[in-house]
Amino acid sequence: MSISSLAQSIQNGKVSAFQHCTDTIRDLKERDSSYNCVTKVLETRALQTAKDLDARIARGDRVGLLAGVPFGVKDLFDLEGQVTTAGSVVLNNSPPATRDAEVVQRLCAAGAIPVASLNMDEFAYGFATENAHYGTTRNPHDPQRLAGGSSGGSAAAVAANLLPFTLGSDTNGSIRVPASLCGVWGLRPTQGLVPLAGVYPFASSLDVIGPFAQNVADIRSVSEVLIGQSLAYKGDVSALSVGILDGWFAQDLTSGVAAGMNAIQAACQHTQTITLPEVARARAASFVITAAEGGNLHLNRLKVEPMAYDPATRDRLMAGALLPSAAVIQAQRVRNWFREIMHEAFRKVDILVAPATVGPAPRLDQPTIMVGGKAVSARANLGLFTQPLSLAGMPVLSAPLSPRNDVDTPLPLGVQFIAAPGKENTLLAFAEMLEQKGLLGFPVVTARN
């Protein structure tokens, strides 16, 4: 059932919000042990909210477009009355949030019901959701594989059909990577379009928040609430010009990803290949900016209680705090230059297409990917194709490629669609066309009874 169909059934009284919320929470408790998506279940709040919603509907009150739809948030979104821990124990003694994050408030005003906070890499620093404090989130399509990160709990909860949509954050690919590996849809909106108030930062100049969902229609329904405007597209989608990114973005792909990219190109009427220059430098600049901002944010706390951090996170934050200013300044210059390169590309095309990851999710016992013929750390390199694009601040949609008979493994594979700033409606319309052609979309693991 789509999000809009579920909300309509609740609004019409055909489905009880309280019963649906009860079933969702029971499902989370019974099935999440296989995946480790959830850090906290908001049972008392959720059930009371659902009960109040049913009463309002019974009185004939108007309710929002997402009435009764349950959702979860990455563990760095403020939830009233809860301590925002950001995937760490370092913040355990912080005071509880006095209000929800602004985007959570928007969703609640539309009738959606928060039911859980979700696992992540500590302080969002990683691409694996291997958390020393809360455990590793497992991929619902194969629990012996990574879910990706840092929003792994958010992506996996949607892939396992535990929740119809969730919220995550994306600094260098933390929505797009887990969406790709878990076979769900994830949107990184235009930077600055969705408010970050009440969301614990990682690298503030790159941070963006966005939704995960099971299909493009659900992404649109949630995104319209988050952004506060319609994302309808009124043009001729088939007339859009499409640029297929090659060079850096055509290397190291598994056969399944390459075949999916070729199928998308064949399905579009107006395509050309586009080579972005100096992508390796852009990725390096993203690394430096992220490390410097993250390290600076945590520096004072690291001086006082360094041993409370996951050692891997601590070492990277300390290294970032020690970066010389000259390196950071140069990285910002590369960022500005690369942003202009991206803007130039959109003078030629409406949509850019690139792989989201090189292939399927790595195994937990072999957390590597092949790059340049060598096995390299998945945690550090799963963002190979997402990190450079983050610098431009443009909207990017991660979409799952549809399963193919000629692919060796039935695991999810993902693709990125990029548009000019503020063109989320174009992205969604284009992806919807490809979804209808059978090129995009991956089944969730199990359907709830």
TrEMBL record:
Domain of life: Bacteria
Domain Amidase, first and last residues per copy: 26-428
EC number: 6.3.5.7
Xref: InterPro entries: Amidase, Amidase_dom, AS_sf, Carboxybiuret_hydro_AtzE
Keyword Transferase: yes
Keyword Membrane carried by entry: no
Keywords (A to Z) from UniProt: Ligase, Transferase
Any Pfam family: Amidase
A molecular-function term among this protein's GO annotations: transferase activity
Protein name per UniProt: Aspartyl-tRNA(Asn)/glutamyl-tRNA (Gln) amidotransferase subunit A
Biological source species: Acetobacter senegalensis
